[in-house]
Amino acid sequence: ASPPDEEWPEAEKAEKLARGAALKWASGVFYCPEKLEALGQYRSRETKRNNSIQARLKSTVQSYLEGVSAGLEQLRSAAKEVQNVCQDLGAARWALIDSADHFQVLQQMRTLMAEHVQLASVVKVLPQLFSVHEVCSHTLQLLREQHLLEAHAELMMLEHLRDDILFQLHLRGLSSAQATVLSYFSGLQELNESLAKQLWGIVGRSLQLVREDPVLFVSAVRIIEREEKIDDALLLDATFLPPGRPKGWRQKFYHILQESITGSHFLTACVDTTGPGLSRHLAALQRDVVAELHVVKDLMVQCVPAYYNILSICTATYHQALTSHLQDILQEDLDKQALFLLLEWVLHVYQSPEMMGHPGLLPEVDVSALGPLISPDLVDQTERKYVVKVKASVLEWMQRTLEVEFKEWFREEEPETDHQGFFQSALPVIVMQMLSENIRVASLITASLQQKVYSMAMEELEAFLGRLREALVRCGKEHQKDRTVPKYYVPYLLAMLNNTLALSSSVSSLHPDTAHREVPASLQAALDRTQRKACQLLLEELLLDLQPLCMQLPSRKWLSGSQLVSSMCEVIDKYAKDFSRVRKPIFTLLLMESERLVTSQYLRALMQKKMVCRSAEERGQLCRRLLQDASQLRELFHGLGLDGSQQSLEAVFALHELICLKDPALLSLEVLGFITKYPDVSDEHISTLLDLRGDVSKEVRHMVLEMMAQHPQALPDGYQPIFSIILVPAPELPFCLRKGKCA
Length: 743
Description:
Blueprint: H1 4-7, H2 9-31, H3 39-98, H4 100-144, H5 148-172, H6 178-184, H7 187-204, H8 206-212, H9 214-236, H10 249-265, H11 275-298, H12 310-330, H13 336-349, H14 376-408, H15 427-443, H16 447-481, H17 489-506, H18 521-550, H19 556-559, H20 564-579, H21 584-606, H22 616-640, H23 650-660, H24 667-677, H25 683-693, H26 698-710
């Protein structure tokens, strides 16, 4: 056995504590001698206490030993009982083994009992099952006679009978008998299909029936609601779901109603997409949709439960069907009129009081919550298609107008005049009416379409002006071949100038924004180019008449006082009278250009090196002739309305001063003043003028040309060149080769 301190560690700990307490007490006693007198009493008291403790310990141990003895006795008794139970279980086991054959007999009885229960269940419903065929036939007859409510009542009875039998079989786990039962109810499928066919036929004609025979439509709705209640009840108890459930006839009702609405009006294949045909189709849609929505609002709403929201559903159906229908139509290649009709109908007619905003439909019908009939992107795409069609039409009309105008230029009579006597033609009126009408029509749709058409109109007008210039060039070439064709070439050119003025003044009125009416820069440039081309052709015509006269300059005959310049003045005056038939801005421009043309031709003739003054007397004659000619021409143009600041004949007067200078040594100063005033004059021009004097030495010429090289001139801003457009003939070689053989 192990030592006591290892078996009872608590005893060792208690002993140590007791020893410690005793030592503590003893030390206290020995430190206080007065307490030694009570030591005997203390010993007696401690002895009594130890005896008491030992007595209690003996009592406790005795009680514990008695409990252990009782427990051991109970264990012996329990062991005997367990042994008895094991013997009984062994006996029962052998008894069960002996009874196994009897259990097999009981299983057979249980199977037989189950079959008996199934047979009893079938026998119980046999009378009802045998009557199913008869009831089905009667129900089918009721359906043929359109006694829908009675037929549906019998159908529900049959379905209830079938479902009840199937449910009982399901509870008993007799799934094998379900096929036998279903065979008796095979006619229910036909009845359901026949009833559904009649219901959907009624729903498909609902808009007509609610006006003519609402009872039939109401019966259909009642049947649908009965079926919905049965579906809801079965779905709440999902343990058993009969065949064919849920039917979902309410959703089918909505679907058939929407299909009937869509199929009756919105078949794109039957639509005539030409302008008149589409107009009739849209008018019919407007009339029919409004009429049918009135029927729904006033009659159908009263025939269905409120929670059907039938008016909202029909409104949304019409809206969606129209959206799809119009998108299909827009896929076709529509003409200009058809595109305009569609845009007008979608953006203005659809929500107007004549259609969805009809007072009789408000406030129940509100399509604003359904979104736009067609998307903004599709509207923009349709507008662009419309602009393309309008552009093609405008191009065709403008081309036809130009062809007519071109033919009129070759007529045997002058162009027509306005009340002030100015030449004109119908071209600007036709073009402006065409463009303004298209822009006005576009403004009836949207501001964006109006802006698109306006931009297209400006582009087409600019292109038209380009073709007009080409036509003027063709006419000018024909006239160059034979100056008698066209007979009234100049008047028609003047009429064209007046036309460009009319277009320029009218085109700003086409702008959609009245606060920013201005001619686009590119279009104004095209108008200016057309004006310049007509002016150029007129000046070329004037030049053809002036050239024979200018060819005679300079000459001795001219110096002697011929009427050459007088003849030039007569030609100029004749053209000026024609120019007076054009309005003021162009008239002044033509006079200025004519004057510059005369001046340049006069100077060009002087620089052709046809004559050299042989004496001071001839130089004097030349000076007088230059002064007289320049004065005569200046008075002519002044009388026509050009003041001195608008004339370039000052160059002839300056040339006169250069020729009339008597001292050649002063030519450098005179030429310096000349080139300062006319910086585009070149060395060749000055050299030719010095040759014309006939008295300039090589030294003076060299000095003059060197002075010009030392004082180069820059062209100031706004300077109109005069001499740079005049070509000087190349100088002749100082020697020539003889025609003989080379050495």
